[in-house]
Amino acid sequence: MLLKLLIYISFSLLLMLKGWYSCFTRKPQTAPLYAKPITAVLPTQRYYKNRKKPQWVVDKVLYLAAISGYGAGKVAELFNQRYGHNGDSVGKTFVYYQIKNQQYQIRILRRDIKHKPPRTLPVNQTWGMDLTTVTLSKQQKLILGIVDHGSRLSIALRELKSKHSDVLLLEICQAIRQFGLPKFIRSDNEACFNSWWLKSCLKLLGIKHQTTKVASPWQNGRIERLFGTFKQKWQQLNFNQCDLQTELAIYRAWYNQIRTHQNLGGLTPAEVWQGRQNKNADKAQWVSAWQGVLCGYYVPD
Predict the structure, then answer these.
(1) Buried b vs exposed e over 274-294: b needs ≥16 C-beta within 10 Å?
(2) Treating both helix axes as pointing N-terminal to C-terminal, what angle do 103-114 and 55-68 enclose, rounded to 10 degrees?
(3) Which of 84, 152, 158, 175 has the least C-beta neighbours within 10 A?
(4) Is 140 exposed, middle or buried (0-12, 13-18, 19+ CB in 10 A)?
(5) Domain 126-298 sits in which CATH superfamily?
(6) What is the average pLDDT value for the chain, to the nearest integer?
(7) How far apart are CA 23 and CA 20, in angstroms?
């Protein structure tokens, strides 16, 4: 009887010690971890790696390559900058193969862009102004040119002794006195055109001064075209010992009243400026100057 009691007590103590020890060794019970549900908005269209690009994407890539002249990487950046917000994007490899395989189409686009006629502008709204130089008697002569964008009329073509802001402002005021007040005057970023004095005076006159971007002469293309035609004619002759301002006046009269312009529908700048075609064609006279370099029909009013 005593032996059974001792066995029972020993077994009870053993169970108590085992339970007490397990309190320190067992792992804490934690709730199971589950992944959080995905809340991202899935695209409406399934993405295909080799999905064919729409035709408008190909056309726009070729247009950017034609107008910019950049390589595949830069053209891809331009496209993604413009159309990336709509979910449309292209890679450099895609652009590379399009440029490589469509060289003929790019040449056609460049030709069409080059020969695209400029849009029509109102007369006496915007003037283009710039400076150029010519060689006369082994000396560089400074010339100021002002042209009306709407009619291509040469407003001023004068020799300058300096390009100080006061000299430029005097020429502008003389042109305004003769032809009226424009709304805009466009020039490049040369310091003489961007002086505080000149811009302040133009602002007081109610004229907004527009400047082109750096190294972007095409943004003021009318005056550049005037200078290009002038130098092409000037370089055909030797004008040493001549009065420059007299020769400039002769060229300006030929440019305004005799030379017809393709983008003006075959009219002269003077006819577009006046808003009517000259009806006295039966009184036309053939004139020639600069040893035949400047020639054409002069139709009197």
Answers:
(1) eeeebeeeeeeeeeebbeeeb
(2) 60
(3) 84
(4) exposed
(5) Ribonuclease H-like superfamily/Ribonuclease H (3.30.420.10)
(6) 87
(7) 6
d(CA 297, CA 259): 8
Query: Using alpha carbons only, how large is the chain's radius of gyration in Å?
Result: 39
Q: Which residues contact 17 (CB under 8 A, 6 or more apart)?
A: none
Distance CA 88, CA 67 (A): 20
Q: Residue length, the chain?
A: 301
Residue appearing with tokens 């009870």: 12
- Within 144-220, residue ranges assigned H as helices are 165-179, 196-204
Q: What is the pLDDT of residues 119-178, one digit of tens each?
A: 888 999 999 999 999 999 889 999 999 999 999 999 999 999 999 999 999 999 999 999
Cβ distance 127 to 134 under 8 Å?
Answer: no
Burial 58-80 (b: 16+ CB within 10 A, else e): bebbbbbbbeeeeebeebbbbbe
DSSP string, 223-283: HHHHHHHHHHHHTTS--TTS-HHHHHHHHHHHHHHT--BGGGTTB-HHHHHHTS----GGG
The tens digit of pLDDT for each residue in 76-126 reads 999 999 998 888 899 999 999 999 999 999 999 999 988 887 788 899 999
d(CA 156, CA 63): 37
Domain boundaries, the chain: 55-114, 126-298
Q: Look at the alpha carbons of 211, 179, 269, 298 in this order and tell me if their dihedral is positive or negative.
A: negative
β-pair partners for 211? 187
> Which tens digit of pLDDT belongs to each residue from 172-211?
999 999 999 999 999 999 999 999 999 999 999 999 999 9
